[in-house]
Specification:
This protein has 6 helices and 4 strands. The protein has helices at residues 2-6, 25-33, 41-44, 68-89, 102-109, 138-141; strands spanning 17-22, 47-53, 93-94, 116-124. It is globular.
Length: 145
């Protein structure tokens, strides 16, 4: 899964994404105790991937009207999507969870302050196999000009 994320493209090949892997019971208990995750099911996952990126790694450019933090969010989201797709291929269940307390997570895991944590991804074996959710038709999402 992490190798799939590692192979994802990033702006100027910056590769600013980092993953803190939490599968240690003591650390998971500490995260639970400090209420790091608003949704308790995150604490119950066998593996929690804390998805981070370092915006300071992006070169400043006067040619582009974007902030390095935007690139960090975009690149991390692409890489995490690769990770989730690979997990699905392996028969694992995942979910993007953004309802988190970032400062608590950073403190407990000693994550540098300049890193962003847009979301975490709990990973485990699915307890159920729900039917796919409905998706819009292509003609509802494609705009031709």
């Amino acid at each position: 899964m992490l190798d799939a994320a590692r192979k994802a493209p990033s702006a100027k090949n910056t590769q600013s994404h980092k993953y803190f892997i939490v599968n240690n019971k003591e650390i998971k208990d500490k995260l639970r105790e400090h209420g790091a995750f608003k949704q308790d099911f995150v604490n119950d996952a066998p593996l929690i991937i804390i998805c981070c990126a370092d915006p300071s790694q992006y070169p400043k450019s006067a040619d582009v009207d974007e902030s390095p933090i935007n690139y960090a969010y975009i690149d991390l989201s692409i890489a995490a999507s690769f990770l989730v797709l690979r997990a699905t291929e392996l028969g694992l269940g995942t979910v993007f969870v953004a309802w988190i307390y970032r400062d608590k997570i950073k403190e407990i895991l000693n994550i540098p302050k300049n890193y962003i944590i847009p979301f975490v991804i709990p990973v485990g074996y699915p307890a159920e196999n729900p039917a796919p959710k409905p998706r819009k038709n292509l003609d509802e999402i494609i705009l031709m000009h």
